[in-house]
Design a protein that fits this description.
The chain is 52% helix and 17% strand. The chain is an alpha/beta fold. The longest helix has 34 residues. The structure holds adenosine-5'-diphosphate and magnesium ion. Adenosine-5'-diphosphate (ADP) binds next to helix 5, helix 7, strand 5, strand 6 and strand 7.
Length: 406
Amino acid sequence: MILTAVACCLIWLIAGKGLSFSLTVMVSVLIIACPCALGLATPLAIIVGTGTAARYGILYKTAAVLEGSGSVDTVILDKTGTVTYGRPEVTDVVCADGLTEDRILELAASAEAESQHPVAAAVMRRAEGLSIPGRTGFRSVPGEGVACTIDGLETAVGNRRFMESLHADTSGLDRTYDGLSASGRTCMFVARGGTAIGIIAVSDPVRPESPEAVRSLDRMGISAVMITGDNSHVTSRVADETGIAEFRADALPQDKLEAVKELQVLQRNVAMVGDGINDSPALAQANVGIAVAGGTDIAVGAADIVLMNDDIRTVPAALEIGRATVRGIRQNLFLAFIYNAVCVPVAAGLPYLLGMAEFTHMPMLAAAAMACSSLSVTANALRLGRFRPSSVPEMSRRASRTASRA
Ligand code: ADP
Ligand code: MG
């Protein structure tokens, strides 16, 4: 910039235009070429974009994520707690001969008491009022279940994979488990001392906004994939209800992580949306990790974007705002660049060569043009503040605004 100004000055001096003229040219070029608008272009758009997103309950942890979310082309959705409410209710309690449903619930509730998983909460709600025995040695295996020792016997609650890893005998209840799973319920065996003694089945309704969120992603040309640790019957049912074409069931946390990596190898820009501890490795690996409202602390910590309202349509809205911000940044850079491209030759004395001498001696004009360029970049960035993502309807927008005021 300084070199250009000095060069212009020297050229006019050599051309014999005198010191005053040449210095005026140099000052004009210096003023015009000052890259304020260029410097403002990106940060301003990001600040305004972040503000717009915050009104919808979308919090970006870094500015880079806001830009990154504009280029997402694949979204991986966790099922439980993301596509569904994550507030399952116990629908069936099955017990082996000689036991009561209450006993199964008491044992399961004791094992689940320290778990943060949504099915644990469902068991605890159902076991309210029962006398829950004490436990020792609690452990939780993400994507599988929980285990502890109750009255000296190892007690476990979890899916079939968990029972297999514990070498628990489930043969007496296998058929019931399969039957309940086929009806679209999430089932857990309750095992004690190495034998399954009961089954607890839960059902978790799909969020009513999920189909619309998937349609919005589709409209944006973003493909949605659902991945879950739940069984394939439940998963294909939820996929049908929401219109998700591609899904994977029985996935461990490690499988979710691998799914993200596989897509990234294919040069896809992946956003992972999840709520649980089991989603955290994938949330951290994804180009953009999105934790939904009410997610566990670990998921919120691993994510790049945190949603403050539990309307899943906020996911496409966050990506729309990302795209709008990237568009705003590009427009701003163009505006800042075009000012310099047009005005630097003018300040350097081009009008003089074209016979319009009166336009040359005007550093004030240069200053005004400079201010205009900064103003136009600012005005363009502020337009982002009025951006309305089409994925979120007016009503919930108002609701989230009220929530943010409260
Ligand atoms: P999702 O991927 O849908 O969020 P998870 O990976 O958390 O599901 O869990 C997968 C499956 O593992 C559940 O459907 C359930 O059968 C079993 N599971 C996980 N955590 C628990 C728990 N605390 N108690 C019982 N079963 C559990
Ligand atoms: Mg989940």
